[in-house]
Every structure is written in C-alpha cells, then in structure tokens.
Inverse folding.
C-alpha cells in the first residue's frame, strides 16, 4: 500500500507527512508528530481522553482517520500554553484541582476549550453537556466543572490566553 | 502504533464518483463520520479493502425545502446540525431531540444522519475485541455458527440502536439511494428487516444519499430514550410518538420504537385508538401495543424484561406529555 502525503495544520503550523490510509488521527499526532499530550484511553470512542479540536470542534482522535483531517486545522493540548505561560483553562484546572491522576485532563481541557470558544459563559448544564463524552475515572467531576467556570470568569476578566 | 488492517481512503466529490469508485473496489465500505465503523475495524469485525469517504460530497451536506413544504436532508448532514437547525426544531422537534441524544457532542460533530440510519446492529457478544470473540467461538453475526443470545435461533438478535430512525418513521420519511443501477427512493421502514446479521436492505454498493420529510401537518412529536450512561449511551429503548389532539380526545397517534429489536418498528394498531378519550384506559391500550410487536433479547447488559417495562412506561409518559402540549 502506498503512503500518500497528508497536509494539515497542526497547532498553527502547516505540515505535510507521508501517511498510510489506515493511520488513526491519534497515532498520527502521537507517533508521527510526536505530540504525546493527547492520550489514548478506551480505544473505542467512549472515554474522550483523546479529544482534540478539528476546525475548533471537539473530535475523538482515536476514532478519526488522519486522512479525514486533510486540509483541516487540528489543535491539541500542546497548542494552549505559550512557552511556560499556561492558558486560562490550564491555570484553572491547576488551581481549582480539576486534575487528579491527570490522564483525562488533556481531553477535558480540549473539550472545554471547544465549548468556551462557542459559549464563553456556559451554565453548569451546558458545561456538563459539553463534557458529556469525557470520563474521569478519579470521578472528580465537581472540581472539573468548577475549573471550567473559573476559566470562563478568568477569560471574561481579560486573561487573554 | 495500534493495530489497523491495511486500507486506502478514497475521496470522491460527487455521488456518481463514489458509486463508480465502489465499482472499481467492490470490497470497499463507505465512510461517513466513522464513529461506528472505525471502532468495528479496530475490533476486527470489519475489514474493508478501502474506505470511500463521503464527507467531501457537497450535495449530501445540504438541508433544503421541498416544493410541498417538507425538507430534504442530505445523508451527510451531521447529528449536531440536525440538533440545531431551526427548520428541524420548528417542524420536527422529535428529530432534533433524538439527534441531541445520540452519544456525546464530540460524536455528534462528525456522526451523520445517514450513518445513524445505517448503524450496525449491536450486541454484547458482537461489540467485543477479536480475542474476546474468538475465545467465545464468535457468534452468528460474524464468523460464528450460533447466536449466544438465542442458541436455537437461526436468526441473529443484535439490536438496532439508531436513535433518529423512529423519529423519521412517525413522519413518513422516505430515503434516497444511489447505486450502480441508478437512483431509487423507498419508504424508510423498507430499509430494514428483522435480522440482526443483515438488517439493512441496501446493497453494499449503494449509498443512502438523503432523507425526504413531508410537511408536518399538525402532529405534536417527541422522542424519549432510556440508556445506561445518560451522557453518552445507545438506547436500551427509544420511543418516538406523533399525535394530534381534539379537545379531550386523542385524534390520531403514530408510535415507532428503536433499540428493542433488530430493526426500528412502527407499532401496528395505533390507528384503532384514534378518536378515543385520552384517559388511563387509553394509555394502557397504547402500552398494550408493544408486547407482541417487539422482541428485546439479552443483547445488552440490561435484561429484556426491563426493556419491555421501561418502553411501556416511556410510551405512556411521552404520550401524556405530548397530549398536554398539543393544540
């Protein structure tokens, strides 16, 4: 089987890589692009640990083909911090203890990022809906929701990140 | 890297091109959002020689008004679009509700109307890894010889688990198909049969391209669903109802169900309950339509008896709710 050239934007940078048709988006991100922040959890689209943004919308990288991202804009957890300066969501998850073991956190933050871009002031119900595809096996959901609320306030107060 | 069998991804930009590509690669499968077929490829249930990606076909991504005032919805329209489109919310709220209750938003952003209608059937003995299924001698649906759910049965009892189909059936929707022998349009119920291993009556070389809805002439419609994980799961039972009210009487009612058999089912006998007073006896009669028309089996972790009881209760609760709001 011949590889074909996959062109996409990953975290703001245009890339072109030789990729087989059967490569999953998560394997492309982790193994080819070397960005291991995105996690493989359930391996079947049930847990949300692999959530990334495609054209600003949350997607599950473990049930998406890399080929389907051709020509699209993909963002992973690595895109949020600027150098050592954390984004509003990252600060909030850190300060409000939204992260316990941390495995679900990249997916939680990217799903939250997709939500806050569309809806900068979500209700608790809207946050729950926005994160409904993301499982935390430490079950720290209350702190996660508080973290997203805190980030929404932080952004409203002008924390640019 | 995780295991994936080798395949190419082909990207047609028209329906005709997609049909022609399938003619050249007969072992190919069509790919829409991929939320169902990709996990099945990972589990060794599906091994396509190629995937023909339909998301680049512009003519399948549109929602347009028909001449008679109904809607034509491209099969590539995502569930997230169905959930939020104002024309659907206004005239067909049951469809918007069903779409909003499919999985999570990250699935609905890619999952499509056509994909939800052509969803593979599901069973606890089928949606498992290769090593799990091989150590259980596989099953009637894939590679095996017996149905573990009904060992004496010649038929597979995997459950159809699409949420949107019954909400289209109560509106008398038709579906457009395109294949090597041209285009055809069929009533939605004719897309399905009661066999979990072969529930779709559509050729492997055919594409479901669009759904057509006649105008809604005064039906109050709704959808109600029970599932294990409320945030994300497939239906243990899903009920769609369309009804009309005339004072304190039920003028007419249509009921379709999903998750309770290998195909979505429009309940027969609802016509006979038209023009009856809307009282407890009528609600019992509505529930009474169910038992002989559905056949839930132990294809889920929840026992069939529970799914029978809960679907009866859903019918009663949803009918009451719709009757209260109907004009």
């Amino acid at each position: 089987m011949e590889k074909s050239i996959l062109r996409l934007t990953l975290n703001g940078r245009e890339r072109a890589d030789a990729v087989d048709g059967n490569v999953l988006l998560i394997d492309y991100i982790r193994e080819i692009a070397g960005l291991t922040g995105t996690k493989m959890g359930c391996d079947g689209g049930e847990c949300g640990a692999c959530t990334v943004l495609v054209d600003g919308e949350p997607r599950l990288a473990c049930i998406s083909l890399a080929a389907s991202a051709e020509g699209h804009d993909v963002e992973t957890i690595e895109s949020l911090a600027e150098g050592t300066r954390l984004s509003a969501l990252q600060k909030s998850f850190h300060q409000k203890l939204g992260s316990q073991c941390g495995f679900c956190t990249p997916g939680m933050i990217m799903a939250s990022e997709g939500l806050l871009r569309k809806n900068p002031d979500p209700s608790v119900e809207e946050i729950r809906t926005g994160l409904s595809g993301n499982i935390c096996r430490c079950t720290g959901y209350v702190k996660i929701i508080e973290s997203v609320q805190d980030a929404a306030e932080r952004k409203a107060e002008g924390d640019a990140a | 890297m995780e295991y994936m069998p080798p395949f190419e991804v082909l990207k047609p930009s028209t329906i005709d091109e997609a049909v022609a590509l399938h003619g050249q690669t007969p072992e190919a499968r069509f790919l829409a959002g991929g939320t169902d077929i990709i996990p099945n490829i990972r589990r060794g249930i599906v091994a396509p020689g190629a995937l023909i990606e339909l998301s680049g076909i512009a003519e399948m991504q549109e929602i347009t008004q028909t001449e008679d005032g109904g809607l034509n919805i491209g099969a590539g329209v995502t569930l997230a679009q169905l959930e939020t489109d104002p024309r659907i919310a206004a005239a067909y709220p049951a469809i918007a509700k069903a779409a909003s209750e499919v999985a999570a938003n990250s699935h609905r952003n890619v999952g499509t109307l056509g994909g939800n209608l052509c969803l593979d059937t599901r069973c606890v003995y089928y949606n498992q890894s290769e090593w799990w299924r091989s150590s259980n001698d596989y099953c009637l649906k894939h590679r095996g010889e017996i149905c573990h759910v009904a060992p004496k049965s010649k038929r597979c009892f995997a459950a159809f688990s699409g949420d949107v189909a019954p909400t289209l059936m109560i509106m008398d929707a038709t579906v457009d198909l395109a294949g090597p022998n041209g285009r055809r349009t069929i009533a939605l119920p004719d897309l399905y049969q009661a066999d979990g291993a072969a529930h779709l009556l559509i050729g492997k070389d055919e594409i479901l391209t669009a759904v057509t809805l006649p105008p809604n002439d005064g039906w109050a419609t709704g959808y109600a669903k029970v599932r294990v994980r409320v945030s994300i799961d497939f239906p243990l039972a899903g009920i769609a109802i369309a009804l009309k009210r005339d004072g304190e009487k039920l003028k007419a009612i249509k009921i379709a169900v999903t998750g309770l058999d290998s195909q979505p089912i429009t309940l027969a006998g609802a016509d006979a309950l038209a023009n009856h007073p809307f009282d407890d006896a009528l609600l019992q009669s509505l529930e009474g339509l169910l038992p002989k028309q559905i056949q839930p089996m132990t294809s889920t972790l929840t026992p069939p008896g529970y799914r029978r009881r809960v679907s009866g209760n859903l019918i009663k609760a949803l009918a009451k709710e719709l009757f209260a709001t109907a004009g």
The longest helix of chain A spans residues 141-156. The longest strand of chain A covers residues 4-10. The interface with chain B takes residues 1, 20-24, 27, 31, 40, 43-46, 48, 51, 57-60, 63-65, 67-68, 70, 111, 128-130, 132-134 of chain A (CB under 8 Å).
